[in-house]
Amino acid sequence: MKNVFCALTIAGTDPTGGAGIQADLKTFQELKSYGMSVVTSAVAQNTTGVQSVHHLPIDFIDEQLESVFTDMPVHAVKTGMIATIEMMEVIYEKLSRSPIPYVMDPVMVATSGDVLIEVQARDYLRDYLLPLTEVVTPNIPEAEFLTGLKIESFDDMKKAAQTIVEDFGAKAALVKGGHLNEEATDILYDGAGFHHFTSERIQTTSTHGTGCTYSAALTAHLSQGHSLVDAVNRSKKFVTAALKHAHPLGSGHGPTNHWGLREEQQEIKS
Ligand SMILES: Nc1ncnc2c1ncn2[C@@H]1O[C@H](COP(=O)(O)OP(=O)(O)OP(=O)(O)O)[C@@H](O)[C@H]1O
Ligand SMILES: Cc1ncc(CO)c(N)n1
């Protein structure tokens, strides 16, 4: 019998399908992991920004987690938008008892600039959830918050990745240079050493949900048993193709193309 790999996302929603749970599920499907989701907040948003947010009741978030964990295999899990400390507490309860690879996208602000997490909750994210992670995937502003360091160079990115692992207890940190360098270079520190992942910079405004898509790809690859470095390599290719082949949708920052890599591979074949 063929193996089935199951990936779970715990995050907020995006009705336009570019970010959040919807982007995660599309990515899981595209990468051939069975996708599951626990919704934390229902978000009315689109490519221009966030219109409104409804947090789900804490007990109901807990029930969704119970529904999944008591019945289904979970081979890897990711978290995205978790807005409040109360939500984080129930998620901590479950994940601290589940020895599976955990990918944290420490979502704080949407591409549009809208804030997605309560300020007090950021400390809880760092102090409780971060030490449970297999890998955390901050962009530059998120890495600055987590470490308190100012990041203006490649060396600063390395220092931040190392600090997140050595001082805050993540097993590995992948600091994304999308907001900083000319080539889109990300740095992984895994406790033993540094690894660099570089792609060409793509001139596009379709960047809505890039971080969600990247961390979901990582989760899918980890659910399938790939090593961390291999999983990041594959996920970087996936997100680069998703940016490169994005269709111009919406009037703001459009979504990436979750089947971009498949399109690229089909073009090469034909
Ligand atoms: N214009 C670009 N061209 C190529 N790669 C990019 C570009 N922008 C971002 N990336 C890459 O995309 C991945 C996601 O990174 P980014 O830093 O944009 O995440 P993020 O800020 O968390 O995303 P989000 O917009 O969802 O909040 C990283 O590998 C980054 O290097
Ligand atoms: C629900 C959700 N999570 C994450 C992001 C960040 O891209 C977003 N815009 N919306």
Automatic annotation (TrEMBL):
Domain of life where this protein originates: Bacteria
InterPro entries hit by this protein: HMP/HMP-P_kinase_dom (IPR004399), PM/HMP-P_kinase-1 (IPR013749), Ribokinase-like (IPR029056)
Coiled-coil parts of chain: none
Region (Disordered) location: 246-270
Keyword terms of this UniProt record: ATP-binding, Kinase, Nucleotide-binding, Thiamine biosynthesis, Transferase
EC numbers, comma separated: 2.7.1.49, 2.7.4.7
Pathway(s) the chain acts in: Cofactor biosynthesis; thiamine diphosphate biosynthesis; 4-amino-2-methyl-5-diphosphomethylpyrimidine from 5-amino-1-(5-phospho-D-ribosyl)imidazole: step 2/3; Cofactor biosynthesis; thiamine diphosphate biosynthesis; 4-amino-2-methyl-5-diphosphomethylpyrimidine from 5-amino-1-(5-phospho-D-ribosyl)imidazole: step 3/3
Reactions it catalyzes: 4-amino-2-methyl-5-(phosphooxymethyl)pyrimidine + ATP = 4-amino-2-methyl-5-(diphosphooxymethyl)pyrimidine + ADP; 4-amino-5-hydroxymethyl-2-methylpyrimidine + ATP = 4-amino-2-methyl-5-(phosphooxymethyl)pyrimidine + ADP + H(+)
Statement: the UniProt record of this protein carries the keyword Hydrolase: no
Gene Ontology process terms (BP): thiamine biosynthetic process
GO cellular component, one term: cytosol
GO molecular function: ATP binding; hydroxymethylpyrimidine kinase activity; phosphomethylpyrimidine kinase activity
Composition skew (Basic and acidic residues), residue ranges: 260-270
Domain Pyridoxamine kinase/Phosphomethylpyrimidine kinase as annotated: residue spans: 14-257
Stored Pfam families: Phos_pyr_kin (PF08543)
Family of the protein in this entry: Belongs to the ThiD family.
PANTHER family per the UniProt record, alphabetical: HYDROXYMETHYLPYRIMIDINE_PHOSPHOMETHYLPYRIMIDINE KINASE THI20-RELATED, PHOSPHOMETHYLPYRIMIDINE KINASE
Protein name: Hydroxymethylpyrimidine/phosphomethylpyrimidine kinase
Organism ancestry: Bacteria, Bacillati, Bacillota, Bacilli, Bacillales
